[in-house]
Specification:
Length: 162
């Protein structure tokens, strides 16, 4: 799973984590802190999930109580339970979870390691290029590349000559 993180919405066909209380597009996953009104609004309108930035288990329990069907990504707390998935910094590999990646070189440490997904910062990654990688429209010089290897290699687009 590849998620994009940015301060504003980018027009690509990928899930995007944005600091907002409103999920104004089905691709938007709201990033909320410990603000009850914002959390309630985000949970009410979210489609794919909510990223909760907290170090408190109480906030995670509250979010799960309000929307037990929704995936809750927890940024700041190492907690994994059912539909709760932790978000870790790239420098701390802890096994399965979603890892926040600022730059392309940070992905090198994850080649061949099991993870749930990546949260790629749009300041360090071109969203259009990431979309092409996810859709399988780029090639690398490896036999069976996974998404991490494709994001780290010097890929090229296939061009069909008529």
């Amino acid at each position: 799973m590849i998620l994009l993180y940015g301060e504003k919405f980018v027009d690509v066909d990928l899930p995007q984590v944005i600091p907002t209380c409103e999920s104004f597009d089905p691709r938007v996953i709201p990033l909320v802190g410990e603000d009850l009104q914002c959390l309630h609004s985000a949970l009410r309108k979210a489609n794919q999930g909510v990223v909760l930035k907290t170090k408190s288990r109480l906030w995670v329990s509250l979010a799960r109580e309000l929307r037990p069907d929704l995936t809750i990504y927890v940024w700041g707390l190492s907690l994994r339970r059912g539909n709760v998935i932790p978000v870790y910094p790239a420098s701390e590999y802890r096994g399965l979870g979603v890892y926040y990646i600022r730059e392309r070189r940070d992905l090198d440490a994850f080649i061949g390691k099991p993870v749930d997904g990546f949260l790629l910062d749009t300041r360090g990654f071109d969203p259009k290029a990431v979309e092409l990688v996810v859709k399988g429209k780029v090639k690398c010089n490896c036999a069976r590349c996974d998404a991490v290897e494709k994001l780290t290699c010097n890929w090229y687009r296939e061009v069909e000559v008529l």
